[in-house]
Amino acid sequence: MAGESNGAAGFGSSIRRREDPELITGRAKYTDDLQLAGMVYCTILRSDYAHAGINSIDTSEAEALDGVLGVYTAKDIEASGVPGGVPVGWLLPGLKTPEHYMLAKDTTRYVGDGVAIVVAEDQYTAHDALELIYVDYEPRDGVADPKKATADGAPLVHDDAPNNIAFDWEIGDKESTDAAFANAAHVASLDIVNNRLIPNAMEPRAALADYNNITGELVLYMTTQNPHIHRLLMSLASLGLPEHKIRVIAPEVGGGFGSKIHHYADEAIASWASMQVGRPVKWTATRTETYITDAHGRDHVTHGEMAIDADGRFIGLRVDTYAAMGAYLSTFAPAVPTYLYGTLMSGEYDLPAIYCHVYGVFTHTVPVDAYRGAGRPEATFIVERLVDEAARVTGLDPAEIRRRNFISPDAFPYQTQVALAYDSGNYIGALDKALEAIGYDDFRKEQAAAREQGKYLGLGLSTYIEACGLAPSAVVGSLGAQAGQWESAVVRVHATGKVTVYSGCSGHGQGHETTFAQIVASALGVPYDDIDVVEGDTGSMPHGWGTYGSRSAATGGSAIASAAEKVVDKARTIAAHLLEAAEEDIEFEDGNFFVKGSPDQSQSLPDVALQAYLAHNLPKGIEPALEATSFYDPANFVYPFGTHIAIVEVCSQTGNVTLQRYLAVDDVGNVINPMIVDGQVHGGIAQGIGQSLYETAVYDEGANLLSGTMLDYAVPKAHFMPSFETDRTVTPCPHNPLGVKGVGEAGSIASPAAVVNAVVDALSPFGVTHIDMPVTSEKVWNAMK
Amino acid sequence: MFPSKFDYHRPSSVQEAVQILSDNPDAKVLAGGHSLIPVMKLRLATPSALIDIGRIDALKGISRANGSLRIGACVTYNEIANSGVVQDAAPLLAEAAGQIGDRQVRYRGTIGGNLSHADPASDLPAAALALGATLHVSGPNGSRSVSASEFFVDLMMTSLQADEILTEVEISAASAGTGSAYVKFEHPASGYALCGAAAVVTRGAGGSCTGASLCFNGVSATAVSANGVAASLVGSDLSDGAIESAVSNLSIPDAAGDMFASAGYRQELAKAIGAQALRTARDRA
Ligand SMILES: Cc1cc2nc3c(=O)[nH]c(=O)nc-3n(C[C@H](O)[C@H](O)[C@H](O)COP(=O)(O)OP(=O)(O)OC[C@H]3O[C@@H](n4cnc5c(N)ncnc54)[C@H](O)[C@@H]3O)c2cc1C
Predict the structure, then answer these.
(1) Cβ B189–A712 below 8 Å, yes or no?
(2) For residue A353, which of A65, A270, A505, A757 sits 20 to 30 Å off, Cα-Cα?
(3) For chain B, how many structural domains are there in total?
(4) Containing structural domain, residue B118
């Protein structure tokens, strides 16, 4: 079915996003827009100390403030008898899992750690009361740098994690890799810091919890990418309410980038508060709170080396990483620098020996977890930087050394040395297309001429691979996930032939209402406008796992395609009965069933649907109604890939880096909606450019967050960006019904390496071989000295 | 936003505003609100009252008479940047105002607020210094005027008294043979000046330099003028070489660094940006 079109709006059409008119006219309702009768507000007092003992908390003045309904501490949560936990959902062998309670009990472990709760009639009072809570802290030393945190004598985040090591993980074959290095003609070696990032979803996190103490039911509206996961964890770990008594609803959600996957204390606190006061309770993070509570991303200190033989072929890769976990293990944190990182070390290359070792390290900082790309940008960065360094030490052109080492298009499926089996790919195809589009040879001439005039241009390649749509569930489970990774869908054809599609995904800006409808329009031959998509409500959806990790098209879309196929099968049976023909003789085209060879005598899908609901004349054994549910567990990950190229100019006077061109050739398999895919690529590139040139969370030696507002934390602005050039190659995924892969993270995975490779290329006349992100003007200026 | 409680006053004259201000020592004047509101939001400022001067007509005019340009304290950046009168009489100010923040900021922020707030990274103080602006101030004891060079005292500190209001900025209209430029190196996060250079040069009949000034934002606690560098250009032909060698001696006292850029780098940036501003000013003279 892939590639088929349904008028102007089926699979493959660049139809405009149907969600946008509401979003851009302000009609859409986000969590904080919702008002319930009797609603009150909650605020959370947060530690100003990276690390401190709590001697006592005096809440009396705050309680006495007019309009305050209650002030609570960890003791009150304990006394209420709820489990009170904030669990980790991915376990590794030997993982230390220190207790993470909804509020700090006797120790705070990062600036932002929750200490007390205020519930008040209005938001102003709720904020005023925070200033009237007096905490007697005993400040202790903190540590923020993941490598320094492992040193003997470094301040401990948790007493039961010596040297702050949460886990010690490895993948690949150390012996064969060491042997490759012993035989290497050349070695490329780099020390890099992958900078810590603060997610900046446009909408801060929020929760509106409505607990009914008569029915015992909790309705929780919240900013989430995965309502079902939150329902599960709220039930099991935080509140102890039975799962069927919890309904989690994601209203419009204004971006997430991973930060709204995780199960935080705050939404559980709002729910618990509602249980205490018996009224709906709303909590909305301020932007400042967002910076000190939303799980941060990246934060690696890495040493990487590539062994190369005399012909410029890669023979071994060795990577050693200290990955920050922050103060507690966030929901999927242990998976990010391990199974989403070490497994990607083969990149697009035929690498015979790989060894990757990772320490997960507790630090006195905001927890670190998945952020757009999650592990794969970090892996791509070290691999693609090493490839450029390998080009330098061998004297080969960066494009040539890639060409020499790519897995060839006829080598698929390709088993890497780090667990993944790539199903398909044509890396050279994407590279050639990108080099051609950028005018590679001409650029090298222009670059040489510019250098003569003291103008420094650079070109950077990033030939990336990524693995997304995690699957199958059994494999993911064997790696430690405490979650499944299949997806579900219901396709319901109403009696009138209109269609409602339900998905266990939960879009928050990706355009699912459009693309999922496009899939169904092509599958059922029903007009696009007759199809609605519903997501983000555990009360109306089958179980699902949400939207993250570029999984929705590959898993959710495939589930929808399977459900639609079941609908067509059932409708075919009914149509055959109505047409008094054998089922095998029935054709289905453009929404019509007819006997092979006589299309003028047909039953349309709406005709069949009506009959299915009337049930006056159904074939034997066929149940009334026309709908199907599908639970789709993919056979493998999907593997998008591509080539990104950045061209920069470096100002020799100020060190300022200007992006002149940015070109992306991505292969995301079959494309449901090219415009939406371009949009996803654009957003991802912008975020990766943010990481490479501007963004970084700065903690001081004592683990205080210095870049705590947008005055200091540089989210990139539109005028920093060139107009992106995008193109594609299409290598369909061989194992899902749509042939689709993922695209949500590709841009942020590929772009940091492209940009930094370009800067290093521009600075090569100065002998520069590496520069850490973000590449600020001062760093460049220093490098040129 | 959830600031602490405050009262709100909206006087309709400067006298009334000054009166309320002297009656309420913990009150703050509210102009465009684009510096004050953010700090109130973070509860770093907790004024007991705001005195909103935004509806006082006397503070909102732009006029030119007798060779002098007068701009009311509540004139917005957008008005300044787009005013033909300002573009003609003080193009440097129009250019600097046009580079502040983004469109929203430029429609709200005011010249009076910008100068009174005296943020070291603001864009207008260097321009005011380079243009030798005179600031008119009203207080309970009447009005007085201060030169820009005496106005900026220290980090976010001016010679305004707590009960005084800045009412008007006066600038001598540019004479023939004068060119100016404001060049800004943006902080990628805040958009404020990591370093901003305001240059004014005047060329005599033969083309040689008869007057120059060069002032900086963003490098130290206050906007500063680099008098030495500017003076050394007088008499020169303002060639690139002359500018280069003048600027090579630039050293801004008490340059300050922060987590984003060190003091040393800011010094170097000042040389590069300063030279660029001087060259552009020369070309426009
Ligand atoms: C997103 C953003 C980006 C910005 N980017 C820039 C930038 O690039 N460059 C730049 O220069 N600025 C920038 N600013 C700051 C902006 O220019 C402010 O408007 C300015 O600093 C203050 O002017 P205001 O009129 O808003 O004053 P307010 O915020 O109302 O007041 C600031 C202070 O000055 C006092 N005050 C105001 N007017 C008077 C008066 N007439 N007499 C006495 N005291 C007075 C107030 O009491 C207060 O203490 C930015 C602000 C924001 C929010």
Answers:
(1) yes
(2) A757
(3) 3
(4) 57-172
- Contact status of A67 with chain B (Cβ, < 8 Å): no
Residue at A208 is within a domain: no
* Phi, psi for residue A727 in degrees, rounded to 5: -150, 175
- B6 contacts chain A (CB < 8 A): no
Check if B263 has its Cβ closer than 6 Å to any atom of ligand 1: no
Dihedral over alpha carbons B149, B155, B156, B162 (to 10 degrees): -80
Rounded to the nearest angstrom, the distance between the alpha carbon of B32 and the centre of ligand 1 is: 6
- B272 CB neighbours in chain A (<8 A) are 653-654
Nearest chain B residue to A286 by CA: give it: B1
A710 contact residues in B (CB cutoff 8 A): 189-190
Whether B61 maps to a domain, the answer reads: yes
Cα separation, A178 vs A172, whole angstroms? 11
Quote the CA–CA distance of B33 and B40 in Å, as a whole number.
10
A27 and chain B in contact, CB less than 8 A: no
User: Quick check: is A8 in a domain?
Assistant: no
Give the tokens for residue A285.
């993070």
ipTM confidence: 0.95
Q: Specify the CATH number for the domain of residue A42.
A: 3.90.1170.50
Do A243 and A122 lie in one domain? The reply is: yes
Identify the residue whose C-alpha is closest to ligand 1 atom 5: B101
Kindly determine whether residue B2 and residue A124, on different chains, have CB atoms separated by under 8 Å: yes
B31 CB within 6 A, ligand 1: yes
In 3D space, the residue among A662, A669, A665, A667 whose CA is nearest the CA of residue A641 turns out to be A667
Same domain as A114, residue A226: yes
Q: Where do the DSSP E strands lie in B240-284?
A: none
Task: Tell whether B197 is covered by a domain.
Answer: yes
What are residue A612's phi and psi, to 5 degrees?
-65, -35
Bridge partners of B180, per DSSP, are B200
Same domain for A320 and A387?
yes
> What is the distance in angstroms between the Cα of A349 and the nearest Cα belonging to chain B?
36
Least Cα distance to B10 among B56, B46, B45 occurs for: B56
> Residue B69 falls within a domain, yes or no?
yes
Query: Parallel, antiparallel, or unpaired for β A281-284 and A40-46?
Result: parallel
Same-domain check for residues A672 and A779: yes
Q: Please check whether residue A610 is in contact with residue A496, taking contact to mean a CB–CB distance below 8 angstroms.
A: yes
Question: Are A643 and A580 in the same domain?
Answer: no
Note whether B188 contacts A653, CB cutoff 8 Å.
no
CATH at B13: 3.30.43.10
Identify which of A376, A461, A444 has the alpha carbon closest to the alpha carbon of residue A643. Answer: A461
- Regarding whether A667 and A626 lie in a shared domain, the answer is no
Do A509 and A552 lie in one domain? The reply is: yes
- Cα of A18 vs centre of ligand 1, distance in Å, is 40
B39 CA to chain A: closest CA distance, Å? Answer: 12
* A343 found inside a domain: yes
Q: Nearest Cβ partner of B265 from A694, A712, A781?
A: A781
Q: Which two tokens stand for residue B194?
A: 């990591």
Please tell me the predicted confidence (pLDDT) of residue A4.
43
Contact yes or no for B260 and A776 at CB 8 A: yes
Which of B1, B2, B269 to substitute to test the interface with A, most A CBs within 10 Å? B2
Q: pTM of the prediction?
A: 0.97
Q: What is the CATH number of the domain that holds A306?
A: 3.30.365.10
| A124 within domain boundaries | yes
Number of independent structural domains in chain A? 3
Residue B2 lies in a domain: no
For ligand 1, atom 23: residue with the closest CA: B113
Provide the residue-wise pLDDT of chain B in tens; the chain has 285 residues: 899 999 999 999 999 999 999 999 999 999 999 999 999 999 999 999 999 999 999 999 999 999 999 999 999 999 999 999 999 999 999 999 999 999 999 999 999 999 999 999 999 999 999 999 999 999 999 999 999 999 999 999 999 999 999 999 999 999 999 999 999 999 999 999 999 999 999 999 889 999 999 999 999 999 999 988 999 999 999 999 999 999 999 999 999 999 899 999 999 999 999 999 999 999 999
- Report d(CA A238, CA A236) in Å as an integer: 6
B36 CA → ligand 1 middle, Å = 7
- The A residues from 246 to 285 touching B (CB cutoff 8 Å) are none
